[in-house]
Design goal:
alpha+beta, Ribosomal Protein L22, Chain A, five-stranded antiparallel β-sheet, four-stranded mixed β-sheet, 16 strands
Length: 262
């Protein structure tokens, strides 16, 4: 099992929710004394997330589709799903964990191919009676990836964390109707928009970033050939290494997660 990590700090918005290193000197004989550059805080954690809108039609009945289950779940996961009669909730737990873990792992290994049937979720059960839960996803050639879930009657949100336990992770979930864009977006940001949720989820992410003093920033997905890379935070045209983020949307909801060094 993966290392225990503190639970992300939830911040909900939307329907039915309320919202050093100092300068040093290095002296070498025969050279001038020079002040070192200030140390930069780098987030070594990578994060991913996935969101499932329970009311969306495409999320209903998936646990009853044998071909789908065979494509995305391991044999032991299919057995667990059947033995517990976990239905769509159980499938949502499994699917969202693999999606979120994939996003976290892909930031370290950009060429990683989404192959959920090869990855294993370790979880004591597929129940979520108290609204929160933890588990671990195992992907070959990666350390165990910790996952946690939060749910309401309307949605399930999964967060995956790979790396440094000293990183603070915060997230927010919002109804799409309550998170309409409140800011203008740069041309680079708009280049990766694919639907109306693209602007809404970035608005939500920027609200989280602003709480940590990160304003006047861009959230950009760079392109390599025909592929879009995971989103990153940019300030003054430069990618920031002191913050990580992950975005997701499904149906009538959007979700954002950020990780900052503490």
């Amino acid at each position: 099992m993966g290392q225990h990590r503190p639970a992300p700090c939830p911040r909900f918005f939307g329907a039915n929710h309320r919202p050093t290193q100092g300068n040093g000197r290095r002296v070498l004989r025969g050279t001038r004394v020079r002040c070192a550059e200030p140390a930069i805080s780098v987030v070594t954690t990578t994060i991913g997330n996935d969101l499932i809108d329970f009311r969306a039609s495409h999320n209903r009945g998936r646990a009853e589709q044998p071909r789908l289950l065979a494509r995305v779940l391991t044999a032991s996961e299919r057995t667990q799903l059947a033995d517990e009669d976990a239905g769509d909730i159980g499938f949502a737990l499994l699917w969202s964990a693999k999606e979120a873990a994939y996003k976290a792992a892909k930031k370290i290994q950009p060429a990683l191919v989404f192959a959920p049937v090869r990855w294993q979720l370790a979880s004591a059960d597929l129940a979520l009676a108290d609204g929160s839960k933890r588990g671990t996803v195992f992907i070959a050639d990666h350390p165990p990836i910790s996952v946690s879930w939060q749910r309401t009657s309307h949605w399930l949100h999964c967060i995956a964390v790979r790396g440094d336990a000293s990183t603070k992770t915060e997230h927010a979930v919002s109804a799409l109707s309550d998170c309409m864009p409140r800011a203008s977006f740069s041309e680079r940001e708009c280049d990766s928009f694919s639907r109306e949720q693209s602007a809404a989820v970035r608005t939500l992410a920027k609200q989280l970033l602003a709480q940590h003093g990160i304003t006047d920033c861009e959230i950009v997905r760079e392109r390599i050939e025909h592929r879009l890379l995971p989103p990153r935070v940019y300030s003054a045209g430069m990618a920031r290494d002191d913050v990580q983020l992950s975005l997701s949307h499904d149906g009538d909801y959007v979700a954002a997660v950020i990780a900052v060094k503490v």
